[in-house]
Amino acid sequence: MRTLIATGALLGLLGCTEPSPDAYVSRSASATAGEPAGNDARNEPCQVQPGRTMPADRQVLRAREVFCGGWTQPAARVVELSGSTSGADLDAIAASGLWRSWLDQRVTCAAPTRTTIAGGTDARLLACTRRAGGWPHVALVTRGPSGPVVADGVATSLPVIERLATGQSGGGGGGGGRSAALELAVARLSADAFGAADVGRYEQLMTLGRDLNQTENFAAAEDAYRAALAVQERVLGRDNPNTATAMLHLAVNLSNQKRLAEAAVLLDRAAGLAPRAADPATPARVLHYRGLHALNAGDPAAAAGLLLEAEGSYGSLIPASATAREADAMNLVSDPVVQSAVLGLAEAKRNRAVAMIRSGRASEAAALVDESRQVLRNAGLEPNMMVGRAMRTEAGADIRLGRNEAAAQLLERAAGRFGVAAPGERPEAVTLFLAGQQRIRAGRRAEALTAFRAGAAILRARQIGLPVPLIVAYLDALDQEANANPGLSPGLRAEMFGAAQLAQRSSTARFVQQASARLGASEGNPAVQGAVRGLQDADRELRELFAERDASGTQNPALDDRIAAAQQRRAQSESEVAAAAPGYRQLLLASVDADSVARALGQGEALLTMLLGPQQGFVMVVRDGRVDARRIPMGEDAVAALVTRVRRSSEIGPGGVPRFDTEAAHELHRLLVTPVAGTLAGAGNLVVAPDGPLLALPFGLLLAQPASPDALGAGDWLVRRHAIVHVPSPQTLVTLRAAGTGSTAPHPYIGFGDFVPPSAAQFARSFPADRCGRDARLATGLGRLPGTRAEVLTSRALLGAAADRAILGADFTIPALRRQPLNQFRVVHLATHALLPGELSCLTEPSIVASPPSGAPSADPAFLKASEVLDLKMDADLVILSACNTGGPGGEGGGEALSGLARAFFYAGARGLMVTHWAVDDAAAALTVADTLRRQQGGASSSASLRGAQLLILDEAGRNLPSAFAHPYYWAPFVLIGDGRRGPGPSAGATAPSRL
């Protein structure tokens, strides 16, 4: 129901008439217009202009604001007061009164120090720290020409403050004497470290991050907060407690992206810094954001406890009168500490209501939401964004309690609030979809469709997606409308297809789309492809460096230098891509409609895709320019259970090859294919874009008719009706098909196989017995695969490659592979073992096993890890991973069918992959690869060639092959992923053990 939003910087949403907490750095449209005021301590030129006043016990004669270094926000404020200027007067003004109260709300200051400024003028200097950002700050009370002068500003502005306070001209260089105040403040000035522009940059980044967070653009908010934190850490130091605020905002935006481990590191660091931060609300915010993180991690009980603690911590900062109905709202708004605590308290209460809803305590949640809103009302603070969120949370409680009409009305009102606060952004779209979901449940289809279509327009304009259950509700409304109005059905079915593309993509789909967008943008131009690859590599490098810095507990100048260099490389790459491939971003982000898919499909091709919700789903086919869409009366979990049954009966176990579950295979066909069988009939090539757990299934083994496990060769397998290629999403197919003619590599083939396993001693050093003894025993059992030698040699011969294009035995090492110019080969073939983290508990990444280099002390150098594959550069029509489970879940769970290995090879430059879904039989793998290659050389497409090889095994089982080969374990593990129309593919082989 809810997206979790950081709340610590909500003050900017209020639109109050009184100054905001950072009023002294508020934007000014005419900030750069004024008179010269000389240079600050950093030698940045400054200007002065009339400014706003602040509370004071004396009459204000003149107020001025100082702008330095081209910054558009005031670096200092100087106010001339009336009255006497005795030492006692200066002491009193510096110690108490309205000005000092105003100052204390914004900064924390040490006791005033008696000193003098230029010319020997008596003064009181206050060394302060800003609550927002922790920047060094100064305040000054001195004698002016007409009375006392009070001033405050960024520490480096003190020389300008002195000149203005004593009535010097803007360019004055001195007043006949040295400034003792400057000598006292020299340590805080840090003139070489920072200036007004640094503070301004930080403020702008924090404001930008807040705005992006409010519109639920968490990835972009991450970038803004990370940059703000970098400015702070560079200036104030990595261990400065005031960096905790930016760190917390960064952490919660990582958490909102489900990057939970990265977020936890930052939350822990911030918790250690928070007690010493200048902003007294920081410890409360730590508890609050830990609660949000617990909600993101699926632990509402822990979240509720943390949020309750946060409420108490915020409450301790709020005077008793501040939340009473008779509270003076304007006075409250003028105190940023109290204001921040009030907003935090209200949001912590609302977030705790979310935790209660998720814990099944919806009846308690509504009262808590009301408390949250009452806190805001009593304080005179009710920004539209916060009110919209409160309504949306209350609607969530109503839904859990069965009050659907009340929920729908609340959601529609909430959408209106979001439409005012952030029109055309994700919060409005989410709320419109939630309202439509309630309307369709109530049978009010027309109102539901109105809400869904308005929300979908926002999603398309902003190029964002929503959770699958919300999109399934939209499809449900369209399906009902199509059934009720047959004449409108074609258009409504096409709308269903387009709507399904608005669902948030799996990490697999996003990852592969990034790679295919590179190919599409380059249109076959290697230089353009290289530019886009450079940008993608720079993005990846920066993310890894940022994670390294987040996890580090100490200042690391060398790491900071590497980040700065990487940022420069990324900026350069961005410029190059903008010039060379202006369509890249559009390819990367845009969803596709049915017409786009229809244009990408060839004669006799169809695309089959589906979307699975919690209780139901939909299957859709695009063929010959039309769309067929049907309801699946089963949710994701039930479909996942069928997929698990099929996979378990397909994979070899301790007892050998199990009895195949023909019932589950037929039931999946009945759900996914039978409803659209009429539209699919006669399609020679079937492109399948699976969803959720179906990504873990080779569709060729679905059974169109019931079959006996004892007569599998005669089964009506889906592969008998269609050649099949899999894609992570319809968008991937469209992008790949738009990518031009394919590989421009000059050489046909390179293959690697017949590895020499590491020794038992080498495995033991990689998997220590005290922690990974079981892994060492399993890894030691990885036997040599002699059939892969014949597989690679046959592939090389069939493709006419040179003799040195088969790298075998002890020569097949990871260094040898890296030395090869892999981007010069149209087919890259790896025939060996593969290991996944789920198989070896001490293995952190999916890996391919090669021969260890001579003299290697451990087995580690024999593992090609997925992260290392990312650094390879290919231009391959086809990469064959003829090893175990290279297309399987890969340790990430949740039906992410492409393992880290397969996704990494797409990123490295593969247009198509031939991978396996489980451990393969060595002889069957060799036959499959060799026959696929032979058919491709005869002119068949990749998908048709693989189908032919699989049918050969099925048809020959019990004749020229053992009858057991009719079992899917032997013929079904290989699948094609990507563009199945082009690209030759490797190899043949011998007979040997199962390839793990």
TrEMBL record:
User: Which intervals of the chain are annotated as region Disordered?
Assistant: 24-52
Q: Where is the CHAT domain?
A: 663-979
State the Pfam families in the record.
CHAT (PF12770), TPR_12 (PF13424)
Query: What's the protein called, per UniProt?
Result: CHAT domain-containing protein
Native organism: Neoroseomonas terrae
Q: Which InterPro entries match?
A: CHAT_dom, TPR-like_helical_dom_sf
